[in-house]
Write a structure and sequence with these properties.
Elements: E1 7-12, E2 15-20, H1 21-25, H2 47-53, E3 58-59, E4 71-79, E5 88-95, E6 105-112, E7 118-122, E8 154-158, H3 175-201, E9 207-213, H4 215-226, E10 233-237, H5 243-258, H6 266-280, H7 294-300, E11 307-308, E12 311-312, H8 328-338, E13 341-342, E14 353-354, H9 373-379, H10 396-409, H11 429-436, H12 446-450, E15 454-460, H13 468-482, H14 484-490, E16 491-496, E17 509-510, H15 513-523, E18 532-535, E19 543-545, E20 552-555, E21 567-570
Parallel strand pairs: 7-8, 7-9, 9-10, 10-15, 15-16
Antiparallel strand pairs: 1-2, 3-4, 4-5, 5-6, 6-8, 11-12, 13-14, 17-18, 18-19, 20-21
Helix pairs in contact: 5-8, 5-10, 13-14
């Protein structure tokens, strides 16, 4: 129901008063425009006036599609034009929980003076806890891309229902807070934000898009699955979906590198990566430092038998002799990270295993001298071995797994996550089954496809937080369940060789995905074959064709190796 028909309460200096949303939008206290009940004026007051009128706006719980105790606008602030971003009103608000011990959901809405009649929601990252910058660009856009707000979108986002560092999982002790992070906050935020948009402009958006990466990528898929009527399109970059499976699968890798002698220092990671590049770089026809034929490399490269500059990667007799080779303990840990992790736990997704990571051929955080390596290391093996308690130097993966196991599963802040039995769940098997029911929001996208929604999904091949193999498996299951033709009508899935989790010292993806999504939804321009990805870090400005999975960019044999025009997408 539109808010034109909804009474919203406000507080004023002299008490309280009510007005319909259309009245607020046109700056009068009556729902109509004149004493004779005629139409409202065609011209709304300046945005600054409307922005001030939003202060203390209350949104009743009945206007939000999941249980809350309502929402309130906490503050409004006019922002002057800056660069490509025009004048806008920044609204900050709170959505109150049902459980009084649960935190509020804090959200923001950026309302442009020159509204294009559309809306964008931005997803969060990690365990969230902070509100994404509604005035900025989300991750992995092209350097020259205009922000959604700068394009005229009303932009909104939330902290997903708690306030903390994105590596802190302690909020999960509260069940409502965990459900909010899992996906409920998405619907609550959307409904509250749209109420603010309608109150400001007098109309609902004509189109609504969701943009997110990592946790935000999972969120983009979740809203399409759970609330398809709300959305016209979404972008899911390296989606950290199926939380229970991903966390327990990631735990196996963390435990493997926590074993005595198993952890690789940055120099040893460099030996491994350079050996992989030496063996596989030219499989795509171009010696450019990027492993593009990932399937071919995974099928042939084995660090236990590989050599680098004629010297075996494996240390003599498998015994650690320094930073120039890998011991058997290290090779074993790599094999476990690279391998499948079986589960003996009934999960709502029906999955019986986790497919592992491209651990043999990915940058784990080596000593290359790149200023990006600290971030790459954090998303890989960290700068200290896994342990308990987790420290700042340990990998992001250790932080996430620790937070999930301690707080969401064991619900015990003193629990040592490294002792957890991921294959069976031990005493917590039933809890894992229960939590897995919150992970399947994106399993059925039939209704989203039927309404004409469109999805763009992108994954880096060297991601060690979100397994490329897990995303591939999700895409393959969608095609098996829905039919290949139906999936091809609404979803495009791309993989970017050399790209890690949000950034890479080898190849960081820059892509104008909002334009691609707009063009597909609004103009019917299929982005299957004409998309270009720009490297923003490895060789800044280098381009490649963005290839739909399972194809990858192969060098044509001539032409500039830094130009997408010299490559063609192939599955050979």
């Amino acid at each position: 129901m539109g808010l034109e028909a909804t009474l919203i309460s406000f507080a004023s200096k002299n008490g309280s008063w009510t007005a319909t949303a259309s009245a607020l939008a046109f700056g009068c206290l009556a729902a109509c425009g004149g004493d004779d009940g005629g139409p409202a004026p065609d011209t709304a007051p300046p945005l600054a006036v409307r922005c001030a009128q939003l202060a203390n706006m209350r949104i009743p719980s009945a206007s939000i599609g999941l249980p809350t105790t309502g929402a309130v606008v906490a503050s409004t602030q006019m922002k002057a034009a800056h660069g490509a971003v025009g004048e806008h009103c920044l609204v900050s608000g709170d959505i109150m929980p049902v459980d009084p011990t649960a935190p509020n959901i804090k959200f923001q809405v950026a309302l442009p003076a020159d509204w294009n009649s559309k809306a964008v929601m931005l997803g969060g990252g990690g365990f969230c806890g902070i509100i994404p910058d509604v005035a900025g660009n989300p991750l992995n856009t092209t350097p020259d891309a205009v922000t959604p707000l700068g394009r005229g979108y009303a932009v909104f986002a939330s902290d997903s229902g708690h306030q903390s560092n994105p590596l802190d999982g302690s909020f999960a002790l509260n069940q409502e807070a965990y459900a909010n992070w899992a996906s409920d906050a998405l619907k609550k935020t959307r409904d509250a934000a749209i109420a603010v948009v309608e109150a400001t402009y007098g109309d609902a958006p004509t189109k609504a898009y969701f943009l997110g990466s990592s946790t935000g990528g999972r969120q983009a898929l979740a809203v399409a699955g759970r609330w398809p009527a709300d959305w016209d399109g979404g972008v899911a970059l390296y989606p950290a979906r199926n939380v229970t499976t991903a966390m327990v699968g990631g735990l196996a890798m963390i435990q493997a590198f926590a074993a005595p002698g198993a952890y690789l220092d940055p120099e040893e990671r460099g030996v491994l990566y350079r050996a992989a590049v030496a063996a596989c770089d030219a499989l795509d026809g171009a010696s450019d430092g990027v492993i593009s034929d990932v399937q071919g490399c995974n099928a042939t490269f084995d660090p236990s038998t590989a050599s680098l500059d004629g010297v075996p990667v494996r240390c003599p007799d498998g015994v650690d002799t320094g930073d120039t080779c890998l011991s058997d303990a290290q090779l074993t840990a790599l094999g476990e990270a690279n391998g499948e992790v079986p589960f003996d736990i009934p999960l709502a997704s029906g999955e019986a295993s986790f497919p592992g990571f491209n651990a043999f051929i990915s940058d784990l955080g080596m000593a290359s001298g790149s200023p990006l390596q600290p971030h790459v290391a954090a998303t890989g093996l960290g700068s200290a071995p896994p342990g308990f308690p987790v420290t700042e130097s340990m990998s992001y993966g250790a932080h996430f797994v620790d937070g999930f196991i301690r707080y969401a599963v064991a619900r015990d802040a003193a629990f040592d996550y490294l002792t957890f039995d991921g294959s069976t769940g031990g005493a917590f098997g039933a809890r894992l089954t229960e939590l897995s029911a919150l992970d399947v929001a994106d399993a059925d996208l039939t209704a989203f496809a039927a309404k004409g929604g469109k999805l763009l999904m992108l994954q880096g091949t060297e991601d060690l937080l979100v397994s490329p193999r897990a995303v591939e498996a999700y895409y393959s299951r969608l095609r098996a369940d829905m039919g290949a033709d139906e999936v091809d009508a609404f979803l495009r899935y791309y993989e970017v060789p050399g790209f890690g989790h949000s950034v890479s010292a080898v190849f960081t993806a820059g892509w104008d995905y909002l334009t691609a999504l707009e063009s597909w939804v609004e103009e019917g321009a299929d982005p299957a074959t004409d998309q270009i990805v720009v490297d923003t870090t490895g060789v800044p400005g280098r381009t490649r064709p963005l290839c739909t999975y399972p194809t990858w960019p192969q060098y044509r044999g001539s032409g500039d190796m830094d130009s997408a025009a010299s490559f063609a997408c192939t599955a050979d």
